[in-house]
Amino acid sequence: MKNLFISKKIILVLIPILSLYFGFLFDEDLSTGGSEKDFHRTFAAVEDFSDFIYNTTYQYTRHFPFHYLFLSIPHIFFNDTYATRVVYLLFSLTFPFFVYLNLCKFYESHKINNLILSSSLLFLPFFRASAIWPNAHLTALIFLLIANYFYIINIKSNNFYYKFLNIFFLSLSTYCIQSYAVFFLFYLFNYYKNNSKKKFLSIMILCITFSLPGFYLILTTPTGTKLDFSNDFSYTVITNLSIIFFFLLFFLINKLNFLMIRGYLSELKLQEIFLLISLFGLLIFNLEGDSLSVSAGGVFFF
Question: What's the CA gap between 122 and 93, in Å, rounded?
């Protein structure tokens, strides 16, 4: 009976992996060609990094460069685009793995359900297109999942080491896609609520230290002031929060979580509620109308 249960779990994992593998063999692109075009358009940045040329990334992309630096590592060894894609495909499988680890921290007694949910993510069009044609958003999401995993561990242990790992991997995520800096608001708010002023000051110093390369990139690259994150701050915050809320819905729709959220909201002080409403109103007021028609966004493809 136990062997049968193990076999079912192996099948649950193998089917989506094999599906992704065959999609890779046939150069599948469920983004209607957008992911493949983006990959080829920006791969010159990877080639430059592999040749130890570090000051040309802005010519090929408006994103921060860590994703392309990351891709250049296998490209240095293989010097082959196809081989680099294969390595990234293997790396992309850490996405469902870290989703599973995060879910198990919340639902420890539902591991089989966690496995089904995390494995099924390999069928999502966004994931498949981004894994088959290496995309900076998927790299950023993987590092974000790792950051969140250490944050959850930190909640139980309250160890500064896990706070460091949370901020470190969140920084890597941001250096793939600069708009992911929005997630710092969530973690810093919770650190502020649950730590002493002295510890929170240490966390802030850590964040400032990790942000220095970002400020350097913004100030020194020709497109630095035109990066996605700095172009329309209101649009960036509202869009990313809507994306976060969409994915959180899958985890929040149950009675226990609803009661937890209601209890958390009921503990907010009047000045905190006023501050949140004011910030949201300010974002809406400053939202540029042109952003809605020319900027990217959505729930399947960011």
Answer: 8
Examine the pLDDT at 282 and tell me if it is beyond 60.
yes
d(CA 295, CA 68): 22
Q: pLDDT tens digits for 129-148?
A: 999 999 999 999 999 999 99
| Residue 217 near residue 224 (C-beta atoms within 8 A) | yes
pTM reported for the whole predicted model: 0.77
HSE-CB for 205 with a 13 A CA cutoff: 7
Angle at 163 between CA 162 and CA 168, to 5 degrees: 95
How far apart CA 103 and CA 136 sit, in angstroms, is 24
Q: By the 8 A CB rule, do 46 and 71 touch?
A: yes
User: Phi and psi at residue 63, in whole multiples of 5°?
Assistant: -80, 160
Contacts for 229 with CB less than 8 Å, ≥ 6 apart = 178, 179, 181, 236
Chain centroid to CA 128: 15
Q: What DSSP letter does each residue of 108-134 carry, written as one string? A: TT-HHHHHHHHHHGGG-HHHHHHHHTT
Burial class (CB in 10 A: 0-12, 13-18, 19+), 166: buried
pLDDT in tens, 99-133: 999 988 888 878 888 888 899 889 988 899 999 99
Scored b (16 or more CB within 10 A) or e, 251-273 reads eeeeeeeeeeeeeeeeeeeeeee
